[in-house]
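Fold it.
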Amino acid sequence: MKRLFFVFPILVLFSCQQKTADTKTDATENKSDAHSFSEPHKAIVKHLDLDIKVDFTSQLISGKASWLIENLAKSEEIVFDTRQLQIQKITLGDDETETTFSLAENVKILGQALKVKINDSTKKVNIYYTTSKDAAAVQWLNPQQTAGKKHPFLFTQSQAILARTWIPCQDSPGIRFTYNAKVTVPAELLALMSAENPQAKNAAGVYEFKQPNPIPSYLMALAVGDIEFKPIDSRTGVYAEPVTIQKASYEFADMGKMVTAAENIYGPYKWGRYDVLVLPPSFPFGGMENPMLTFATPTVIAGDRSLVSLIAHELAHSWSGNLVTNATWNDFWLNEGFTVYFERRIIEAVYGKDEAKMQEVLGFQDLNATLEDFGKESPDTRLKADFNDRDPDEGVSDIAYEKGFSFLRTIENEVGREKLDAFLKNYFNSHAFQSVTTEEFLADLDKNLIKGDKQLRDKLKIDEWIYQPGLPSNSPAVSSVNFTTVDSLISTWKKTGKTSDLNISKRSTNVLLYLIRHLPEDISISQMTAIDKEFGFTSSGNSEIQAAWYTLAIRKKYTPAYPSIEKFLTDVGRRKFLSPLYKEMIKTSEGKQWAKNIYQKARPNYHSVSYNSIDELLK
């Protein structure tokens, strides 16, 4: 997933003086998932046969989830996670003998444990259910909320613990299963899943899917809409609404090159096809790494392929995250830190070292801003997190992404890229289609890379990186020649005040983002007007540049940008952009009222992942 960038300070529910040992526990104990009611050591799911109907009129999904299970402890019950689900009945086996079940008391964030009576010989559990109209994972869009404005659209977002709101499941990243699915939708629409997908509509509106590789529940995904397909090469392609498909296929033309570059670094792509679905603007994230079908925001379609690092990120998840998965959400850095490292290696291979270096510098700036926001001694700045009793989605920040990346970059600097690549390639292969804890990764690192070298281990400061807050003293220095040039131009401009002195020849997205971030805090409205005239930031079609410029415009009360800010907040549902803008607005009383006025109109266009965050901000 790329990316979150937002954490509520109120979520830091424990003292900064908490001992390091609090999260440094035995690997077996750490496999217990505080965010799931399931008891996989007793009875665990292995395969799902899903048969559902999507009803846009009632805005409900209904059908049957048939689970093949393994009753490891000869238990008399199996426990599933549910939230906002209506359970009609449950049967056992192919002959569908009805059994008893109970729903436990509702627990905030987690939902309800579904306890199903089974016996020693039970191998299949069939759950008949219907979602609720406000299922948190599911967003139902009316035609006006889509790009084409003609047909409704549906998409799901299961990460982190929302799969249980549209499928009764054992909703833990440490539990993997294969699945087949049959999905019935209106005949004029196409259904897609995180599986082997059709490339065209059929007259019946009935689609069948197969995911032969075991995945965790958070990678279950469904999208239904007026969708077309356009191939990029023999194993990559783009799905999008008809009005978007040409722009999307142009923007993502390098997908095949990225897959090849990734394979050259860490070995074969094990998922068959790699396709991307461009969703309507309300999608709350940049991208979601659903296997075989990345879900992507249309905000990356800039017209110049300048934001395609997002595709490199989601592709990298095919190794770090989808192939080898964090066992619990407290180990989330294993998914995201590795993926940011791999993403930048792909970018370097396809677009060159300068591009990768610029992204590294911008990422390090984001990390420092997060550390400043949390406080460098906050326990939430540790790589091994503690999201127990919290929603793991809202508790995640740039720490997992950028501090995780910096740790891997530190290892690379000490042992060399060749040795690190060999280690990671073996790590991905030896743990393929498995979920691992932080402690299991560290054991693998000790055994296969450090190999008893105490001097190396001391240099790496592993315990400080993983279990201590803040950044260790061996954090790698980052720099970019391109940004040094921008620094020099800004310095000259500060002295002369002449916009012509900001004569940036290479106006790439990263260069312009760096420029906006480093404009002086005392910049005047007249200076902003001149810069806006020179660079066209307010009217930019690049969402990253818009978000950065609009944040500055709100802070400095640059009113010429206000209409564009309102349109941006109404049209875009990506939380990475929404949160900083709303946070900046509420710093003043008039700004907070402005934010509330916009939000009243915009909220229906946001996914629950986004509006839950903004609700908390504006309450």
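The radius of gyration is 24 Å.
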